[in-house]
Amino acid sequence: MSDSSQHTKNTQTSSLTEVRLKKVEELLNQGISPYATGFSPEINSSQFKEDFNQIAETDSIEDHVKMSGRIIAIRVLGKAAFMRIRDLTGDFQIYLGRDTIGVDNYNVAKKLDIGDIIGVVGKPFKTRTGELSVLVEQFVLLTKALRPLPEKWHGLSDVETRYRQRYLDLIVNQTSRDIVVTRSKIISYLRNFLTDRGFLEVETPMMQALPGGASAKPFETYHNALDRSLYLRIAPELYLKRLLVGGFDRVFEINRNFRNEGISTQHNPEFTMLEFYEAYKTYDDLMYLTEEMLSSVAREITGGCRFLYGKTEVDLTPPWERMSVREALINYKALNENEIDDWNAVFIKAVEMGLKVGKEDSLGKLWMAVFDEVVEEKLWGPVFIHKYPVDVSPLARRNDEDPTVTDRFELYICGREMANAFTELNDPIDQRSRFEQQVLARNAGDEEAHYLDEDFLRALEYGMPPAAGEGLGIDRLVMLLTNSQSIREVILFPHMRPEKGLG
User: Fold this and answer.
1) Interatomic CA distance for residues 365 and 345, integer angstroms
2) Distance (Å, whole) CA 406 – CA 390
3) Cα 133 to Cα 240: distance, rounded to the nearest angstrom
4) Strand locations in 177-329 (E)
5) How do residues 215-236 score in pLDDT, each as one tens digit?
6) H or E element that contains 4
7) Long-range contacts: 222-231, Cβ < 8 Å, 24+?
8) What CA–CA distances, in Å, run from 177 to 40, 172, 268?
9) Percent of the chain at pLDDT above 90?
């Protein structure tokens, strides 16, 4: 939106607000509160239609309904008015007649505007056009809206406004409200799925002395009383593993994580993860569990395992494809068999692609840089990419047959990483060695490398049972199951650049 059009819009809004403020003053002079309370609806729009949609135009209904909502349309017909009201479950129509509510009340009703929230009591009836409505006998103004809704109240298309003023988006866009409800259903389903299988839901610190559990740049803060720096967690992993040491064999957390990274259609600096751990299991076991969990939540939300994402079908029917990192690089022609184990050849290939790589990078890190650039977007999946190099998997157990790779997988669907899992490294000696390598990488300038966590190593020295753990991106799962192309569609209040004039 240009500065001139924004100025015009602001001027118009200011003028309309002045008109509404005058109405507020008039109501107050009449002894009417523009912000009343004490009215509690007894039925919503959905229940209203379910209970009374079968009545005929000629039926005389003695039942009374008590409803509330926001006015989204007004049509005045002289001595009467039709208004469309919106609540969380949908829209319904009301009829306000001067003969029904009285002259004084009708004069008050004429001061109502689109956006106002009202409560009504009346009888259900059908109009001549067959629309179920409420014949209002009593009404109360609950909230006077001082700002007008967008001119096209049935839709708000400006993406910038939708994300910045989510409250306005939710008022006018049914799709946005549906996503919020669906997200809640998905999280509830996942929670029940795990608790039904004996997992215990826990809470771990969001402010940590050392950030760990993922390769990411943390947000840093400072605690005055403790006189120390703290970090917003990038993952709960190391604390959940401490619980395995403490004897809790099945734990999970639906958690908020924070990573000081860029913003895109797939990334928000604050996001939601499901992370769960189970003792005496391997990453192979988690592949089966993930297939069952995601295929069943898809059936619950979409009605089946096959549905559209964008205009292309996704099929989550198990079993899913499995492919090693090496196989993926070769199969998708990112690297060939003659060069894949040659550091120089892979480095030159990465430089030719314009990737940010350095001569200090390991072969495994070069692999993953090429993988991210060439392979990832082609993995429509669902596909488990497994056997990640040790040097990019500092918390995963080495593979018994090939110790240069780990028992780790990442799940890809629609060209996006959806989950990351591995058989956990519970050898404290190997873990210390991996941490030390990460420290060297951090000292060399890698801001996403792990810190050396002495307390976690101490916990491992007391003995952690063999286990497997997984982190699943809730936001990306909601994107998938609601056919949303941007993560901002599924996060209620996404982070954005400062708005001009508001800071």
Assistant:
1) 14
2) 6
3) 54
4) 200-201, 207-208, 220-223, 228-232, 250-258, 270-279, 306-309, 312-315, 321-324
5) 888 999 999 999 999 999 999 9
6) helix 3-29
7) 231/207
8) 22, 9, 20
9) 83
For residues 395 and 422, the answer to whether their CB atoms sit within 8 Å is yes
Taking alpha carbons only, the member of 95, 87, 297, 93 closest to residue 186 is 297
Is 70 exceeded by the pLDDT of residue 1?
no
- H or E segment and range at residue 439: helix 428-443
Q: Which of 3-7, 52-56, 303-307, 354-358 has the lowest mean pLDDT?
A: 3-7
- The domains of the chain, with CATH numbers, are 3-149 (2.40.50.140), 172-320+381-489 (3.30.930.10)
pLDDT band at residue 267 using 50, 70 and 90 as cut-offs: confident
Look at residue 378 and give its three-state secondary structure: helix
CA atoms 374, 356, 347, 216: torsion sign: negative
Q: For tokens 């969990």, what's the residue?
A: 293
Question: Residue 102 region, left (φ>0) first, then alpha (ψ -120 to 50), else beta?
Answer: left
Residue 300 Cα distances to 304, 306, 397, angstroms: 7, 12, 34
Q: What is the pLDDT of residue 57?
A: 78
The C-alpha atoms of residue 206 and residue 352 are separated, in whole angstroms, by: 41
Compute the distance between CA of residue 126 and CA of residue 149 in angstroms, rounded to an integer.
Answer: 28
- The residue among 266, 276, 269 whose CA lies nearest residue 475 is 266
**Long-range contact set of residues 3-6: C-beta below 8 Å, sequence gap at least 24:** none
Check: CB of residue 346 under 8 Å from CB of residue 362. Answer: no
The structure tokens 């007008």 sit at 148
Peptide bond before residue 319 is cis, with ω within 30 degrees of 0:
yes
Whether 4 shows a pLDDT value over 70: the answer reads: no
| Whether the model pTM is above 0.85 | yes
Pairing assessment for the beta strands 312-315 and 306-309 based on DSSP bridges: antiparallel
Q: pLDDT at position 154, please?
A: 47
What's the burial of 349, exposed, middle or buried (CB within 10 Å: 0-12/13-18/19+)?
A: buried
Residue 25 tokens, joined:
């003053």
- Note the pLDDT tens digit of each residue in 353-384: 999 999 989 999 999 999 999 999 999 999 99
Question: Which of the two residues, 400 and 446, has the higher pLDDT score?
Answer: 400
pLDDT of residue 10 exceeding 90: no
Q: For residues 33 and 142, what is the distance between their CA atoms, to the nearest angstrom?
A: 8
Q: How many Cβ atoms sit within 10 Å of the Cβ of residue 467?
A: 24
Q: What is the mean predicted confidence (pLDDT) over 306-335?
A: 97
- Residues 383 and 409: beta-carbon distance below 8 Å: no
